[in-house]
User: Fold this.
Amino acid sequence: MRAHVNAASPFARKVRIVARETGLISRVQEIDTAVSPVAPNAGLAAANPLVKIPALVLDDGTTLYDSRVICEYLDALAGQRLFPQSGMARWQALRLQALCDGILDAAVLIRYETAVRPQAVRWQDWIAAQRGKIDGGLAALEQAQSGFGASFGIGQVGAACVLGYLDFRFPDIDWRARCPQLKAWFAEASTRASVRDTAPRA
Assistant:
């Protein structure tokens, strides 16, 4: 299998962590792939018509996307370790994943607005609205952390990607001051090999 990823992408990091947590990393070739909202990657477009990462090309040529689909596929391939298969536990895990993906969506939109759009036409109200989603999402994630326990499932994978991306791209967001439970949890989670080895870099 070939995975189109990028070390700076939090959504690609989800897939990279899952590949390691499930023991499938030896079967996944990670291909560093650059993407831009204004300069489409023609090579990636051949695999994923949305021209987004992550994208997982299976051995038969089928491409899976987005991160949610890829993560669940890898987990199923490995014997279902990170996704509860039924009952309320499954819905809670998927809701936590959705919360983390929503925070990341807002953060990436701010990143594009401030790093790609020319300064003269940046939309400050848009940025503020996305920042409000990040703040609200972090508050909900802090509340949810009490239910994490010792597990490291798909929701916790998402949480690690959220906090790592905020540290990477938004050091001005002092989430640790407002989220002491997440601060303690992330310090411990960051010692896991899968989290440590996929830390974002410029």
Observations:
- The chain has two domains: 2-77, 87-192.
- Residues 87-192 form a domain with the Glutathione S-transferase Yfyf (Class Pi); Chain A, domain 2 fold (CATH 1.20.1050.10).
- The CA atoms of residues 35 and 52 lie 7 Å apart.
